[in-house]
Design goal:
Structural class: alpha+beta
Strand content: 15-25%
Shape: extended
Distance between the termini: 43 Å
Order of helices and strands: EEEHHEEH
Number of helices: 3
Largest sheet: 3 strands, antiparallel
Strand order of the largest sheet: 3-5-4
Number of strands: 5
Length: 81
């Protein structure tokens, strides 16, 4: 079975789009995410624990991919009116 790309072309079976290299991913601290989203750190922790926001655990702290924050905000955006 072939997958369909965003440009309408089909990809051969078993080939997935290339994800960015882990070294290219920018990670944010919980405090940085809270500042970007204008919420408390506790709200960010709740979102991470509820799996609403993906995160990587580093020791006793969490790091959130910057793109995940942008994706969350884009998907959560609603049109008022």
């Amino acid at each position: 079975m072939s997958a369909k790309r965003s440009d309408g072309e089909k990809e051969p079976a078993g080939i997935r789009p290339v994800e960015p290299a882990l070294s290219d991913v920018k990670f944010l601290t919980v405090a940085e995410v809270a500042a970007v989203m204008r919420v408390s750190k506790m709200t960010v922790y709740r979102m991470v624990h509820a799996a609403e926001l993906p995160a990587v655990r580093v020791g006793r702290s969490f790091r959130v991919p910057e793109q995940a924050v942008h994706d969350y905000l884009r998907d959560a955006f609603i049109e008022a009116g």
